[in-house]
Design brief:
This protein is mainly alpha-helical. It has helices at 2-14, 31-45, 59-75, 84-88, 92-105, 120-136, 142-147, 164-174, 185-205, 210-222, 225-233, 255-319, 323-410, 418-474, 478-523, 526-558. The two termini are 63 Å apart.
Length: 559
Amino acid sequence: MEEVDKIILHSLRQIGCDIDEDVTSLKQFDTEMIVKSAVCCLDLIQPNLGLPHILPQNMAAKYRMGQLIAQACMDNGYPGDVGYQTFLYSGESDIRKVLMFLIEKLPKEQEKFVHEPTGPELILRKIRQKVKEELTRPCLPRACSDLGSPQSFLTYSNIKETPKIAWKEFCMNDLSSNMMDKKYLIPTILTLHSRAILAKNRPQLHQSKPENNKINNIDKTLLTSNFSKEVTRGNWKPPIAPRPKLKEKTTNNTTEDDQTWSESKKEEDILSKEIEELVADVQRLKSKKNQILQDLERDQFNLCQMKEKNLLRMKILELLPDGENNLNKYQQVIDSASQRLVSLANQWEKHRIPLIEKYRKSVQVQSDKTSETVKKAETAKSLGEKRRELEIDLKNKDKLLSQLHVENEKVGKEVNRSAYTRRILEIINNIEKQKTEIEKVLRDTREIQKEINTLSGQLDRSFTVADETIFRDAKKDETSRKAYKLLATLHSDCDQLVAMVQDTGAILREIRDLEDQIEKEKSKNIAANLERIMADLNQMKNESAQLTAQLKLKQQQNS
Protein backbone atom coordinates (compact mmCIF):
# COMPACT_ATOMS: atom_id res chain seq x y z
CA MET A 1 0.00 0.00 0.00
CA GLU A 2 3.01 2.35 0.17
CA GLU A 3 2.89 2.87 -3.59
CA VAL A 4 -0.82 3.61 -3.43
CA ASP A 5 -0.25 6.15 -0.65
CA LYS A 6 2.47 7.83 -2.69
CA ILE A 7 0.16 8.10 -5.69
CA ILE A 8 -2.64 9.55 -3.51
CA LEU A 9 -0.31 12.10 -1.91
CA HIS A 10 1.08 13.12 -5.30
CA SER A 11 -2.43 13.61 -6.67
CA LEU A 12 -3.49 15.69 -3.64
CA ARG A 13 -0.44 17.93 -3.96
CA GLN A 14 -1.16 18.45 -7.67
CA ILE A 15 -4.70 19.71 -7.01
CA GLY A 16 -3.38 22.28 -4.52
CA CYS A 17 -3.85 20.52 -1.20
CA ASP A 18 -1.30 21.80 1.37
CA ILE A 19 0.50 18.64 2.50
CA ASP A 20 3.99 18.69 3.99
CA GLU A 21 6.77 16.88 2.20
CA ASP A 22 7.50 14.92 5.38
CA VAL A 23 4.15 13.12 5.04
CA THR A 24 4.78 9.88 3.13
CA SER A 25 1.81 7.72 4.16
CA LEU A 26 -1.83 8.01 5.08
CA LYS A 27 -0.99 6.80 8.59
CA GLN A 28 0.43 10.28 9.29
CA PHE A 29 -2.89 11.98 8.40
CA ASP A 30 -4.81 13.55 11.25
CA THR A 31 -8.47 14.58 11.22
CA GLU A 32 -7.82 18.10 9.87
CA MET A 33 -5.68 16.80 7.00
CA ILE A 34 -8.31 14.18 6.11
CA VAL A 35 -11.08 16.79 6.02
CA LYS A 36 -8.93 19.24 4.04
CA SER A 37 -8.01 16.61 1.43
CA ALA A 38 -11.63 15.48 0.99
CA VAL A 39 -12.90 19.08 0.68
CA CYS A 40 -10.21 19.94 -1.91
CA CYS A 41 -11.30 17.00 -4.06
CA LEU A 42 -14.98 17.84 -3.66
CA ASP A 43 -14.37 21.49 -4.62
CA LEU A 44 -12.99 20.34 -7.98
CA ILE A 45 -15.76 17.79 -8.49
CA GLN A 46 -18.59 20.14 -7.39
CA PRO A 47 -17.41 23.76 -7.52
CA ASN A 48 -20.67 25.13 -6.03
CA LEU A 49 -20.54 22.96 -2.90
CA GLY A 50 -18.95 25.66 -0.72
CA LEU A 51 -17.55 23.54 2.15
CA PRO A 52 -14.92 25.17 4.43
CA HIS A 53 -11.38 23.81 4.27
CA ILE A 54 -10.75 24.24 8.02
CA LEU A 55 -12.41 22.00 10.59
CA PRO A 56 -14.38 24.10 13.12
CA GLN A 57 -13.68 23.88 16.85
CA ASN A 58 -17.29 23.40 17.92
CA MET A 59 -18.23 19.72 18.18
CA ALA A 60 -21.69 20.18 16.71
CA ALA A 61 -20.21 21.99 13.71
CA LYS A 62 -17.62 19.21 13.35
CA TYR A 63 -20.28 16.53 13.19
CA ARG A 64 -22.35 18.64 10.79
CA MET A 65 -19.39 19.17 8.47
CA GLY A 66 -18.50 15.47 8.56
CA GLN A 67 -22.06 14.60 7.63
CA LEU A 68 -22.02 17.10 4.73
CA ILE A 69 -18.80 15.63 3.34
CA ALA A 70 -20.19 12.11 3.66
CA GLN A 71 -23.42 13.15 1.89
CA ALA A 72 -21.41 14.74 -0.93
CA CYS A 73 -19.43 11.51 -1.38
CA MET A 74 -22.67 9.50 -1.51
CA ASP A 75 -24.18 11.92 -4.04
CA ASN A 76 -21.17 11.36 -6.29
CA GLY A 77 -21.75 7.59 -6.18
CA TYR A 78 -19.45 6.25 -3.44
CA PRO A 79 -20.29 2.52 -3.23
CA GLY A 80 -19.30 1.80 0.38
CA ASP A 81 -20.57 2.90 3.78
CA VAL A 82 -19.60 6.46 4.63
CA GLY A 83 -20.59 8.81 7.44
CA TYR A 84 -19.21 11.53 9.69
CA GLN A 85 -17.22 8.86 11.58
CA THR A 86 -15.33 8.05 8.36
CA PHE A 87 -13.65 11.46 8.48
CA LEU A 88 -13.57 12.16 12.21
CA TYR A 89 -12.70 8.69 13.62
CA SER A 90 -11.60 6.81 10.54
CA GLY A 91 -9.09 4.06 9.88
CA GLU A 92 -6.35 4.00 7.31
CA SER A 93 -8.09 1.60 4.92
CA ASP A 94 -11.37 3.56 4.93
CA ILE A 95 -9.64 6.86 4.23
CA ARG A 96 -7.60 5.25 1.46
CA LYS A 97 -10.77 3.98 -0.23
CA VAL A 98 -12.53 7.35 0.05
CA LEU A 99 -9.56 9.34 -1.26
CA MET A 100 -9.03 6.89 -4.13
CA PHE A 101 -12.69 7.27 -5.08
CA LEU A 102 -12.54 11.09 -4.95
CA ILE A 103 -9.32 11.17 -7.00
CA GLU A 104 -10.98 8.98 -9.64
CA LYS A 105 -13.90 11.44 -9.78
CA LEU A 106 -11.62 14.45 -10.33
CA PRO A 107 -12.16 16.17 -13.73
CA LYS A 108 -9.65 15.44 -16.46
CA GLU A 109 -7.24 18.08 -17.70
CA GLN A 110 -9.12 18.52 -20.98
CA GLU A 111 -12.36 19.24 -19.12
CA LYS A 112 -12.54 22.93 -18.24
CA PHE A 113 -14.40 23.71 -15.07
CA VAL A 114 -14.94 27.31 -14.06
CA HIS A 115 -14.25 27.88 -10.38
CA GLU A 116 -17.24 29.68 -8.91
CA PRO A 117 -16.36 32.11 -6.12
CA THR A 118 -17.88 31.58 -2.70
CA GLY A 119 -18.52 33.78 0.30
CA PRO A 120 -17.72 37.49 -0.04
CA GLU A 121 -16.44 37.07 -3.61
CA LEU A 122 -19.81 35.71 -4.71
CA ILE A 123 -21.66 38.64 -3.05
CA LEU A 124 -19.39 41.23 -4.72
CA ARG A 125 -19.82 39.52 -8.07
CA LYS A 126 -23.62 39.65 -7.75
CA ILE A 127 -23.47 43.36 -6.77
CA ARG A 128 -21.32 44.18 -9.82
CA GLN A 129 -23.68 42.30 -12.12
CA LYS A 130 -26.74 44.09 -10.68
CA VAL A 131 -25.11 47.54 -11.06
CA LYS A 132 -24.15 46.72 -14.65
CA GLU A 133 -27.75 45.73 -15.46
CA GLU A 134 -29.10 48.97 -13.96
CA LEU A 135 -26.61 51.07 -15.97
CA THR A 136 -27.58 49.40 -19.25
CA ARG A 137 -31.28 50.26 -18.83
CA PRO A 138 -32.56 53.43 -20.68
CA CYS A 139 -33.03 56.53 -18.52
CA LEU A 140 -36.67 57.76 -18.57
CA PRO A 141 -38.31 60.70 -16.74
CA ARG A 142 -40.39 59.90 -13.71
CA ALA A 143 -43.58 61.16 -15.39
CA CYS A 144 -43.02 58.76 -18.30
CA SER A 145 -42.42 55.84 -16.02
CA ASP A 146 -45.84 56.40 -14.36
CA LEU A 147 -47.59 55.75 -17.67
CA GLY A 148 -45.91 52.35 -17.81
CA SER A 149 -48.00 51.10 -14.88
CA PRO A 150 -50.93 48.90 -15.85
CA GLN A 151 -54.39 50.53 -15.88
CA SER A 152 -57.61 48.54 -15.73
CA PHE A 153 -60.19 49.26 -18.46
CA LEU A 154 -63.50 47.87 -19.50
CA THR A 155 -63.31 45.01 -22.00
CA TYR A 156 -65.61 42.27 -23.14
CA SER A 157 -63.67 39.71 -21.08
CA ASN A 158 -64.60 41.59 -17.88
CA ILE A 159 -68.33 41.01 -18.44
CA LYS A 160 -68.54 37.38 -19.54
CA GLU A 161 -71.93 36.97 -17.89
CA THR A 162 -73.52 39.85 -19.93
CA PRO A 163 -75.43 38.88 -23.11
CA LYS A 164 -74.16 40.23 -26.41
CA ILE A 165 -77.30 42.32 -27.02
CA ALA A 166 -77.04 44.05 -23.63
CA TRP A 167 -73.34 44.74 -24.22
CA LYS A 168 -74.14 46.24 -27.61
CA GLU A 169 -76.81 48.49 -26.10
CA PHE A 170 -74.38 49.58 -23.41
CA CYS A 171 -71.69 50.51 -25.94
CA MET A 172 -74.11 52.41 -28.17
CA ASN A 173 -76.04 54.30 -25.54
CA ASP A 174 -74.18 54.45 -22.25
CA LEU A 175 -70.53 54.56 -23.32
CA SER A 176 -69.75 58.15 -24.21
CA SER A 177 -66.47 59.69 -25.18
CA ASN A 178 -66.37 62.34 -22.44
CA MET A 179 -65.87 59.92 -19.51
CA MET A 180 -63.06 60.91 -17.24
CA ASP A 181 -62.45 57.41 -15.80
CA LYS A 182 -59.24 55.93 -17.20
CA LYS A 183 -60.73 52.49 -17.66
CA TYR A 184 -63.12 53.84 -20.36
CA LEU A 185 -60.35 55.58 -22.33
CA ILE A 186 -59.52 52.74 -24.78
CA PRO A 187 -63.20 51.81 -25.45
CA THR A 188 -63.90 55.50 -26.25
CA ILE A 189 -61.00 55.68 -28.70
CA LEU A 190 -62.12 52.47 -30.37
CA THR A 191 -65.68 53.87 -30.68
CA LEU A 192 -64.44 57.07 -32.32
CA HIS A 193 -62.22 55.11 -34.69
CA SER A 194 -65.12 52.90 -35.78
CA ARG A 195 -67.39 55.91 -36.40
CA ALA A 196 -64.66 57.64 -38.41
CA ILE A 197 -64.27 54.60 -40.67
CA LEU A 198 -68.07 54.45 -41.06
CA ALA A 199 -68.23 58.15 -41.95
CA LYS A 200 -65.53 57.66 -44.55
CA ASN A 201 -67.53 54.94 -46.30
CA ARG A 202 -70.97 56.64 -46.07
CA PRO A 203 -70.68 58.99 -49.10
CA GLN A 204 -70.15 56.03 -51.41
CA LEU A 205 -73.27 54.26 -50.15
CA HIS A 206 -75.71 57.16 -49.71
CA GLN A 207 -74.59 60.10 -51.84
CA SER A 208 -78.16 61.22 -52.64
CA LYS A 209 -79.20 61.91 -49.09
CA PRO A 210 -78.35 65.34 -47.68
CA GLU A 211 -78.62 64.06 -44.13
CA ASN A 212 -75.75 61.68 -44.71
CA ASN A 213 -73.64 64.52 -46.06
CA LYS A 214 -74.35 66.44 -42.91
CA ILE A 215 -73.29 63.51 -40.74
CA ASN A 216 -70.19 63.08 -42.89
CA ASN A 217 -69.25 66.73 -42.33
CA ILE A 218 -69.75 66.32 -38.58
CA ASP A 219 -67.57 63.21 -38.53
CA LYS A 220 -64.88 64.94 -40.53
CA THR A 221 -64.94 67.79 -38.04
CA LEU A 222 -64.42 65.29 -35.25
CA LEU A 223 -61.32 63.94 -36.92
CA THR A 224 -59.68 67.41 -37.06
CA SER A 225 -57.65 69.18 -34.44
CA ASN A 226 -60.64 69.80 -32.18
CA PHE A 227 -60.93 66.06 -31.62
CA SER A 228 -57.74 65.83 -29.63
CA LYS A 229 -58.61 68.95 -27.59
CA GLU A 230 -62.11 67.83 -26.72
CA VAL A 231 -61.02 64.31 -25.84
CA THR A 232 -58.28 65.68 -23.66
CA ARG A 233 -60.69 68.06 -21.84
CA GLY A 234 -63.47 65.46 -21.62
CA ASN A 235 -66.12 67.87 -23.05
CA TRP A 236 -66.78 66.14 -26.36
CA LYS A 237 -69.72 63.69 -26.59
CA PRO A 238 -70.64 61.89 -29.81
CA PRO A 239 -74.26 61.48 -30.84
CA ILE A 240 -75.92 58.45 -29.32
CA ALA A 241 -77.44 56.03 -31.76
CA PRO A 242 -80.96 54.82 -31.14
CA ARG A 243 -81.25 51.71 -29.05
CA PRO A 244 -82.09 48.65 -31.16
CA LYS A 245 -85.16 46.70 -30.24
CA LEU A 246 -85.28 42.96 -29.98
CA LYS A 247 -87.94 40.97 -31.68
CA GLU A 248 -89.97 38.89 -29.34
CA LYS A 249 -90.44 35.27 -30.20
CA THR A 250 -93.48 33.49 -28.96
CA THR A 251 -94.11 29.80 -29.06
CA ASN A 252 -97.54 28.30 -28.67
CA ASN A 253 -98.13 24.61 -28.20
CA THR A 254 -101.45 23.26 -29.41
CA THR A 255 -103.74 20.94 -27.51
CA GLU A 256 -103.53 18.31 -30.23
CA ASP A 257 -99.79 17.93 -29.74
CA ASP A 258 -100.30 17.43 -26.01
CA GLN A 259 -102.89 14.72 -26.59
CA THR A 260 -100.69 12.94 -29.13
CA TRP A 261 -97.76 13.01 -26.74
CA SER A 262 -99.86 11.61 -23.84
CA GLU A 263 -101.22 8.78 -26.03
CA SER A 264 -97.73 7.82 -27.23
CA LYS A 265 -96.54 7.86 -23.61
CA LYS A 266 -99.30 5.45 -22.57
CA GLU A 267 -98.55 3.09 -25.48
CA GLU A 268 -94.88 3.13 -24.55
CA ASP A 269 -95.69 2.20 -20.92
CA ILE A 270 -97.91 -0.69 -22.07
CA LEU A 271 -95.22 -2.03 -24.40
CA SER A 272 -92.53 -1.80 -21.69
CA LYS A 273 -94.74 -3.80 -19.28
CA GLU A 274 -95.34 -6.49 -21.92
CA ILE A 275 -91.58 -6.71 -22.60
CA GLU A 276 -90.84 -7.16 -18.89
CA GLU A 277 -93.41 -9.96 -18.65
CA LEU A 278 -91.96 -11.72 -21.71
CA VAL A 279 -88.42 -11.48 -20.28
CA ALA A 280 -89.61 -12.99 -16.98
CA ASP A 281 -91.32 -15.86 -18.91
CA VAL A 282 -88.11 -16.54 -20.86
CA GLN A 283 -86.06 -16.70 -17.66
CA ARG A 284 -88.55 -19.07 -16.06
CA LEU A 285 -88.52 -21.36 -19.12
CA LYS A 286 -84.68 -21.38 -19.15
CA SER A 287 -84.53 -22.47 -15.50
CA LYS A 288 -87.13 -25.21 -16.16
CA LYS A 289 -85.11 -26.40 -19.17
CA ASN A 290 -81.91 -26.63 -17.07
CA GLN A 291 -83.71 -28.65 -14.40
CA ILE A 292 -85.06 -31.09 -17.02
CA LEU A 293 -81.58 -31.56 -18.51
CA GLN A 294 -80.12 -32.36 -15.07
CA ASP A 295 -82.85 -34.95 -14.44
CA LEU A 296 -82.18 -36.50 -17.85
CA GLU A 297 -78.44 -36.87 -17.14
CA ARG A 298 -79.09 -38.47 -13.76
CA ASP A 299 -81.58 -40.94 -15.32
CA GLN A 300 -79.11 -41.88 -18.05
CA PHE A 301 -76.39 -42.59 -15.46
CA ASN A 302 -78.74 -44.79 -13.46
CA LEU A 303 -79.76 -46.62 -16.67
CA CYS A 304 -76.11 -47.42 -17.49
CA GLN A 305 -75.52 -48.86 -14.00
CA MET A 306 -78.63 -50.99 -14.24
CA LYS A 307 -77.56 -52.31 -17.67
CA GLU A 308 -74.17 -53.40 -16.26
CA LYS A 309 -75.83 -55.18 -13.35
CA ASN A 310 -78.29 -56.91 -15.69
CA LEU A 311 -75.42 -58.06 -17.96
CA LEU A 312 -73.60 -59.59 -14.99
CA ARG A 313 -76.75 -61.37 -13.85
CA MET A 314 -77.35 -62.72 -17.38
CA LYS A 315 -73.87 -64.23 -17.46
CA ILE A 316 -74.45 -65.86 -14.05
CA LEU A 317 -77.83 -67.28 -15.23
CA GLU A 318 -76.16 -68.75 -18.32
CA LEU A 319 -73.67 -70.62 -16.10
CA LEU A 320 -76.27 -71.98 -13.62
CA PRO A 321 -77.65 -74.91 -15.72
CA ASP A 322 -74.19 -76.59 -15.92
CA GLY A 323 -72.81 -75.41 -12.56
CA GLU A 324 -70.68 -78.41 -11.58
CA ASN A 325 -68.79 -78.55 -14.89
CA ASN A 326 -68.15 -74.83 -14.77
CA LEU A 327 -66.79 -75.12 -11.19
CA ASN A 328 -64.45 -77.91 -12.27
CA LYS A 329 -63.19 -75.80 -15.17
CA TYR A 330 -62.49 -72.85 -12.88
CA GLN A 331 -60.69 -75.17 -10.41
CA GLN A 332 -58.47 -76.51 -13.21
CA VAL A 333 -57.58 -72.97 -14.26
CA ILE A 334 -56.64 -72.07 -10.65
CA ASP A 335 -54.48 -75.21 -10.27
CA SER A 336 -52.60 -74.54 -13.51
CA ALA A 337 -51.97 -70.94 -12.42
CA SER A 338 -50.57 -72.08 -9.04
CA GLN A 339 -48.29 -74.63 -10.73
CA ARG A 340 -47.04 -71.95 -13.08
CA LEU A 341 -46.35 -69.66 -10.12
CA VAL A 342 -44.33 -72.40 -8.37
CA SER A 343 -42.25 -72.98 -11.51
CA LEU A 344 -41.60 -69.26 -11.84
CA ALA A 345 -40.49 -69.11 -8.20
CA ASN A 346 -38.00 -71.92 -8.80
CA GLN A 347 -36.65 -70.16 -11.85
CA TRP A 348 -36.30 -66.90 -9.83
CA GLU A 349 -34.30 -68.72 -7.15
CA LYS A 350 -31.84 -69.83 -9.79
CA HIS A 351 -31.38 -66.26 -11.03
CA ARG A 352 -31.53 -64.52 -7.61
CA ILE A 353 -28.23 -65.86 -6.18
CA PRO A 354 -25.95 -64.50 -8.96
CA LEU A 355 -27.86 -61.21 -8.87
CA ILE A 356 -27.28 -60.83 -5.15
CA GLU A 357 -23.56 -61.48 -5.60
CA LYS A 358 -23.48 -58.94 -8.42
CA TYR A 359 -25.31 -56.44 -6.25
CA ARG A 360 -22.82 -56.85 -3.39
CA LYS A 361 -19.93 -56.26 -5.76
CA SER A 362 -21.62 -53.16 -7.19
CA VAL A 363 -22.24 -51.83 -3.67
CA GLN A 364 -18.56 -52.29 -2.84
CA VAL A 365 -17.49 -50.54 -6.03
CA GLN A 366 -19.96 -47.76 -5.36
CA SER A 367 -18.64 -47.20 -1.85
CA ASP A 368 -15.12 -46.90 -3.27
CA LYS A 369 -16.33 -44.38 -5.83
CA THR A 370 -18.15 -42.46 -3.08
CA SER A 371 -14.99 -42.09 -1.02
CA GLU A 372 -13.13 -40.96 -4.11
CA THR A 373 -15.92 -38.50 -4.93
CA VAL A 374 -15.77 -37.06 -1.42
CA LYS A 375 -12.04 -36.52 -1.75
CA LYS A 376 -12.48 -34.79 -5.08
CA ALA A 377 -15.29 -32.69 -3.63
CA GLU A 378 -12.96 -31.50 -0.85
CA THR A 379 -10.30 -30.68 -3.42
CA ALA A 380 -12.85 -28.81 -5.52
CA LYS A 381 -14.03 -26.80 -2.48
CA SER A 382 -10.47 -25.77 -1.62
CA LEU A 383 -9.78 -24.86 -5.25
CA GLY A 384 -13.01 -22.88 -5.40
CA GLU A 385 -12.06 -20.88 -2.32
CA LYS A 386 -8.63 -20.24 -3.74
CA ARG A 387 -10.20 -19.20 -7.03
CA ARG A 388 -12.48 -16.70 -5.28
CA GLU A 389 -9.57 -15.24 -3.37
CA LEU A 390 -7.56 -14.90 -6.56
CA GLU A 391 -10.52 -13.29 -8.35
CA ILE A 392 -10.88 -10.72 -5.56
CA ASP A 393 -7.15 -10.07 -5.67
CA LEU A 394 -7.31 -9.74 -9.46
CA LYS A 395 -10.17 -7.21 -9.25
CA ASN A 396 -8.22 -5.14 -6.73
CA LYS A 397 -5.14 -5.25 -8.93
CA ASP A 398 -7.15 -4.26 -12.02
CA LYS A 399 -8.69 -1.38 -10.10
CA LEU A 400 -5.26 -0.28 -8.94
CA LEU A 401 -3.97 -0.56 -12.49
CA SER A 402 -6.76 1.67 -13.81
CA GLN A 403 -6.03 4.20 -11.08
CA LEU A 404 -2.35 4.16 -11.97
CA HIS A 405 -3.18 4.72 -15.63
CA VAL A 406 -5.37 7.70 -14.68
CA GLU A 407 -2.65 9.14 -12.50
CA ASN A 408 -0.12 8.57 -15.26
CA GLU A 409 -2.30 10.56 -17.67
CA LYS A 410 -2.71 13.39 -15.16
CA VAL A 411 1.03 13.82 -14.58
CA GLY A 412 2.52 16.53 -16.79
CA LYS A 413 5.03 15.82 -19.51
CA GLU A 414 7.74 17.76 -17.73
CA VAL A 415 7.55 15.46 -14.68
CA ASN A 416 10.03 12.59 -14.58
CA ARG A 417 7.77 9.57 -14.86
CA SER A 418 10.37 6.84 -15.24
CA ALA A 419 9.96 5.59 -11.66
CA TYR A 420 6.19 5.49 -11.96
CA THR A 421 6.38 3.81 -15.36
CA ARG A 422 8.78 1.17 -14.10
CA ARG A 423 6.61 0.48 -11.08
CA ILE A 424 3.46 0.28 -13.22
CA LEU A 425 5.12 -2.17 -15.58
CA GLU A 426 6.15 -4.33 -12.63
CA ILE A 427 2.58 -4.27 -11.32
CA ILE A 428 1.26 -5.17 -14.78
CA ASN A 429 3.65 -8.11 -15.04
CA ASN A 430 2.64 -9.34 -11.60
CA ILE A 431 -1.03 -8.99 -12.52
CA GLU A 432 -0.51 -10.95 -15.73
CA LYS A 433 1.26 -13.73 -13.82
CA GLN A 434 -1.49 -13.86 -11.24
CA LYS A 435 -4.07 -13.83 -14.01
CA THR A 436 -2.39 -16.84 -15.64
CA GLU A 437 -2.37 -18.69 -12.32
CA ILE A 438 -6.01 -17.82 -11.71
CA GLU A 439 -6.99 -19.09 -15.18
CA LYS A 440 -5.09 -22.33 -14.50
CA VAL A 441 -6.88 -22.76 -11.17
CA LEU A 442 -10.21 -22.04 -12.86
CA ARG A 443 -9.55 -24.68 -15.53
CA ASP A 444 -8.62 -27.26 -12.86
CA THR A 445 -11.71 -26.35 -10.89
CA ARG A 446 -13.96 -26.77 -13.92
CA GLU A 447 -12.45 -30.17 -14.74
CA ILE A 448 -12.85 -31.36 -11.17
CA GLN A 449 -16.40 -30.06 -11.09
CA LYS A 450 -17.20 -31.93 -14.30
CA GLU A 451 -15.72 -35.12 -12.87
CA ILE A 452 -17.68 -34.68 -9.66
CA ASN A 453 -20.89 -34.17 -11.62
CA THR A 454 -20.17 -37.31 -13.68
CA LEU A 455 -19.49 -39.43 -10.60
CA SER A 456 -22.56 -38.05 -8.85
CA GLY A 457 -24.70 -38.93 -11.84
CA GLN A 458 -23.26 -42.47 -11.97
CA LEU A 459 -23.86 -42.85 -8.24
CA ASP A 460 -27.47 -41.74 -8.53
CA ARG A 461 -28.12 -44.03 -11.50
CA SER A 462 -26.49 -47.02 -9.76
CA PHE A 463 -28.54 -46.48 -6.66
CA THR A 464 -31.73 -46.15 -8.72
CA VAL A 465 -31.04 -49.43 -10.59
CA ALA A 466 -30.16 -51.29 -7.40
CA ASP A 467 -33.19 -49.88 -5.63
CA GLU A 468 -35.56 -50.96 -8.41
CA THR A 469 -33.94 -54.43 -8.66
CA ILE A 470 -34.16 -55.21 -4.96
CA PHE A 471 -37.53 -53.58 -4.39
CA ARG A 472 -39.20 -56.06 -6.75
CA ASP A 473 -38.29 -58.98 -4.49
CA ALA A 474 -38.52 -57.17 -1.17
CA LYS A 475 -42.22 -57.98 -0.85
CA LYS A 476 -41.69 -61.74 -1.13
CA ASP A 477 -38.17 -62.55 -0.01
CA GLU A 478 -36.86 -61.70 3.47
CA THR A 479 -33.25 -61.52 2.25
CA SER A 480 -34.19 -59.01 -0.44
CA ARG A 481 -36.03 -56.96 2.17
CA LYS A 482 -32.91 -56.85 4.39
CA ALA A 483 -30.74 -55.98 1.40
CA TYR A 484 -33.12 -53.14 0.49
CA LYS A 485 -32.90 -51.75 4.03
CA LEU A 486 -29.09 -51.93 3.95
CA LEU A 487 -29.07 -50.15 0.59
CA ALA A 488 -31.25 -47.33 1.94
CA THR A 489 -29.01 -47.05 5.02
CA LEU A 490 -25.88 -46.91 2.84
CA HIS A 491 -27.39 -44.22 0.66
CA SER A 492 -28.39 -42.08 3.64
CA ASP A 493 -24.93 -42.51 5.20
CA CYS A 494 -23.28 -41.37 1.96
CA ASP A 495 -25.54 -38.34 1.83
CA GLN A 496 -24.68 -37.48 5.43
CA LEU A 497 -20.98 -37.87 4.66
CA VAL A 498 -21.17 -35.51 1.68
CA ALA A 499 -23.21 -33.01 3.72
CA MET A 500 -20.61 -33.14 6.51
CA VAL A 501 -17.82 -32.45 4.00
CA GLN A 502 -19.77 -29.47 2.61
CA ASP A 503 -20.45 -28.14 6.12
CA THR A 504 -16.76 -28.49 6.94
CA GLY A 505 -15.82 -26.45 3.88
CA ALA A 506 -18.37 -23.78 4.78
CA ILE A 507 -17.03 -23.61 8.36
CA LEU A 508 -13.47 -23.24 7.05
CA ARG A 509 -14.59 -20.39 4.81
CA GLU A 510 -16.33 -18.68 7.72
CA ILE A 511 -13.17 -19.08 9.82
CA ARG A 512 -11.11 -17.40 7.08
CA ASP A 513 -13.65 -14.58 6.77
CA LEU A 514 -13.62 -14.02 10.52
CA GLU A 515 -9.82 -13.96 10.54
CA ASP A 516 -9.86 -11.34 7.76
CA GLN A 517 -12.39 -9.28 9.71
CA ILE A 518 -10.23 -9.52 12.83
CA GLU A 519 -7.23 -8.27 10.86
CA LYS A 520 -9.28 -5.40 9.46
CA GLU A 521 -10.53 -4.42 12.93
CA LYS A 522 -6.97 -4.54 14.26
CA SER A 523 -5.85 -2.17 11.50
CA LYS A 524 -8.57 0.38 12.37
CA ASN A 525 -6.82 1.63 15.56
CA ILE A 526 -9.90 1.25 17.70
CA ALA A 527 -8.10 2.27 20.89
CA ALA A 528 -6.93 5.58 19.38
CA ASN A 529 -10.38 6.26 17.97
CA LEU A 530 -11.95 5.57 21.38
CA GLU A 531 -9.59 8.05 23.01
CA ARG A 532 -10.52 10.69 20.44
CA ILE A 533 -14.20 9.97 20.90
CA MET A 534 -13.88 10.31 24.67
CA ALA A 535 -12.02 13.59 24.25
CA ASP A 536 -14.73 14.91 21.90
CA LEU A 537 -17.39 13.72 24.35
CA ASN A 538 -15.78 15.63 27.21
CA GLN A 539 -15.54 18.70 24.99
CA MET A 540 -19.23 18.44 24.13
CA LYS A 541 -20.10 18.12 27.83
CA ASN A 542 -18.08 21.24 28.60
CA GLU A 543 -19.77 23.15 25.77
CA SER A 544 -23.20 22.01 26.95
CA ALA A 545 -22.39 23.11 30.52
CA GLN A 546 -21.25 26.52 29.28
CA LEU A 547 -24.39 26.97 27.20
CA THR A 548 -26.57 25.92 30.15
CA ALA A 549 -24.84 28.43 32.41
CA GLN A 550 -25.27 31.19 29.83
CA LEU A 551 -28.94 30.32 29.44
CA LYS A 552 -29.54 30.42 33.19
CA LEU A 553 -27.74 33.76 33.46
CA LYS A 554 -29.84 35.21 30.67
CA GLN A 555 -33.05 33.96 32.29
CA GLN A 556 -32.02 35.59 35.59
CA GLN A 557 -31.32 38.88 33.84
CA ASN A 558 -34.70 38.80 32.06
CA SER A 559 -36.55 38.02 35.30
